Amino acid sequence: MNTNDLGALSDMAALEVLGARLAAVRLKRNLTQTALGREAGVSRATIERLERGVGADLKLLVRVLRALDLLEGFLAGIPADEPSPMALLRAQGKKRQRARGEGPTEAA
Questions:
Q1: DSSP secondary structure code for residue 105 in this structure
Q2: What is the CA radius of gyration of the chain?
Q3: How far apart are CA 42 and CA 32, in angstroms?
Q4: Residue among 60, 70, 17 nearest 40 (CA)
Q5: Closest Cα partner for 4 from 99, 26, 13?
Q6: Which residue from 50, 62, 57 is spatially nearest to 15, judged by alpha carbons?
Q7: Residue 1 and residue 96: Cα distance in Å, rounded?
C-alpha cells in the first residue's frame, strides 16, 4: 500500500495504515500485544483490532498511544485552535499613532 499521499486514502485504508504503524512500533519495542494491552489498560483483542485497522473507541486509541509514548506526536499533528491574525488585531484595540499636543510642554 502506497502511503506517500495519506490524504488520498479511504477511511478504511487510513485505519489500516495507522494499525500497521502501531504494530511496527510495538514490535520495534519488542512488546507482545498482551504486554502492550496490559500497559495501556486494554485487552489484547483491542490491540489486535487497532493493528488490523478495524477500529476501536477513541479512548482506547488514546490509551494505546500514551502507552507507546506516541500521544504527544499524534496530537501535534492536529493544529490547535488559535485565533486568526485579524482576531488578534481586534483584541489589541487601536494603537495610538499621534500626540494631540494639548498636554504640558517641556521646559526648554
A1: P
A2: 26
A3: 13
A4: 60
A5: 13
A6: 50
A7: 59
- The length of the chain in residues reads 108
The phi, psi pair for 96, rounded to 5°, reads -70, 130
* Cell output for 29: 519495542
Q: What is the pTM of this model?
A: 0.69
pLDDT per residue as tens digits for the range 2-50: 556 778 889 899 899 999 999 999 999 999 999 999 999 999 999 999 9
Question: Look-up: residue for cell 479512548?
Answer: 59
Dist CA 63 CA 53 (whole Å):
16
Measured between its terminal Cα atoms, the distance across the chain in Å is 80
d(CA 93, CA 74): 36
Q: What residue spans define the domains of the chain?
A: 6-80
CATH number corresponding to 6-80: 1.10.260.40
pLDDT digits (tens, 9 = 90+) for 54-108: 977 899 999 999 999 999 999 988 888 888 888 877 878 777 777 887 766 655 5
